[in-house]
Amino acid sequence: MLVRSFVPAHITAFFAPVFHDDPLKTGSLGAGINLAKGTNVFASIETGTLERHVHIAFNGEPVKREEAVISYSVAEKLVPEDFLGEVEIWQYFDFPNGYGFGNSAGGALGTALALGYRFGGTWLRAAQVAHEAEVKHRGGLGDVIAQLAGGIEVRVKPGGPGIGVVDNLFFEDYKVLVVPLGKLSTREVLDGDVVKTIEVEGRNALKALLKEPTPERMIALARNFAEKTGLLSGELLELARELDKVISTPSSMIMLGKGLFALVRGREVEGIRATLSDLGVPYDIVEIYEGKPRVERWFEGGPK
Amino acid sequence: MLVRSFVPAHITAFFAPVFHDDPLKTGSLGAGINLAKGTNVFASIETGTLERHVHIAFNGEPVKREEAVISYSVAEKLVPEDFLGEVEIWQYFDFPNGYGFGNSAGGALGTALALGYRFGGTWLRAAQVAHEAEVKHRGGLGDVIAQLAGGIEVRVKPGGPGIGVVDNLFFEDYKVLVVPLGKLSTREVLDGDVVKTIEVEGRNALKALLKEPTPERMIALARNFAEKTGLLSGELLELARELDKVISTPSSMIMLGKGLFALVRGREVEGIRATLSDLGVPYDIVEIYEGKPRVERWFEGGPK
Hints:
The structure is a homodimer.
Chain A: E1 2-18, E2 27-47, E3 52-58, E4 61-62, H1 69-78, E5 85-93, H2 103-119, H3 123-136, H4 143-149, E6 152-157, E7 165-168, E8 174-182, H5 186-191, H6 194-211, H7 215-228, H8 234-244, E9 252-253, E10 258-265, H9 269-279, E11 284-287, E12 294-297
Parallel strand pairs in A: 3-5
Antiparallel strand pairs in A: 1-2, 1-12, 2-5, 2-6, 3-4, 6-7, 8-10, 8-11, 9-10
Helix pairs in contact in A: 1-2, 1-3, 2-3, 3-4, 6-7
């Protein structure tokens, strides 16, 4: 059987981590955006072998256990211990790993949904397994629950699926400009001194956003958060200022990746493309993804 | 400005009401299915008059305040007190009112989302206002939160949006057969003696479903619930038994309406149509709606 799942890429705009002994109560407060590109997972499950095998591949290349700790951990939990057969999990990412697009959570959740679909359980159980693996192995704190919510999301109560609460902003006619320039380790940032400033500024930004819950306010608060925490500085900040000149709302920094994002109006897209080509940076303009992740049986050539 | 929203019809399979002084903690446990047909709301908001007017129409016909208490209550909360202008809310229902398709919640949530989109706030705020109006005026207890979840849903923790928790079942290739035959008053059932049996049987069904969370198990538990509570009896039960002969899973009763529903495989649809025409009952075969309700700006002739 072949199962396909899709999980949107998720960009965090601002956040405050919330730690707890219970991984399901660990999570984050904050806000972010889900994109119509993201992670596609194809899970091939075949019975008839004498052993239980699980293999994972990123973008068509098999990866070792230590390079895919989170997804292997999810698979080990959701493939029954007494299952005899081959489970191959092919994860395809529309954005590069480590750049702040929630690929780690996308792979974990996409894997969990595909395996849940095949082996039983529910959406909540699958999502909780993905969240727990993310938290335990420090992939991220809020991506899974944000990806489940879709749209422009606001994490108003921290925690994993079933515990945390995610709200959504209304928006009209926005697409998302992304400028992915490089990696930033979530783990290193969360282990550094800056985490205290992040906690304070993230909570302040959330409080301010809930007073005026609009996308325009969200992106302005994100920029303020990025600068106040010092995460956005140097050349990246200079580039953000260049982008500001051609977009009606501020640009901000992808949390956590070396990259920028901005909300752009449908009608602004052509003008922005021209300017960005001049700046010579890689970029993409992507639709916002509303709704839930998808999971379905897959047949050669597409769904039936 | 014209805003359009869509909220899926929601059929409850089984339930246990949970009452509380706080409407947001009032809700239900249970399971149900969201359909690709449902309630479409068009909200027309025009400024420039000297007074604040709110008008509501069902299927093109203006309705009095006392005939649309829930939706008027939602509108009064979400149209700002100092707004001067005309608010017209046109609700169109794909299924008849009172037949157990969650029209009341669909109208309330669709109205709340459309007004939130225009006047500000968030999805959660809009959904909570809709839930509170439903609970206060006894339209329903679990429809709003179920409609937000989409798919085949399981209410595992009672309460309104932000408080209650809704899970989803995985499913493959099912459509929903509905046989709508007449009205049943939610209010009268909830005020009757049967509510005690409903509370016990609803919780038992939920417990059993979570042990084996599949659509097939859900529909079997729904049928058992419908018969044990005595809600499904007489001619309706006889008709259910007729349906059982041509469908691989049991049929069950729409909670709460005089009607039946069943899960049918895509490949079974043609055969079922033939049999149902012979039975001479009204029916429809509808897709399951996954994902969240929709809200968007609407322009003459469709979305931009």
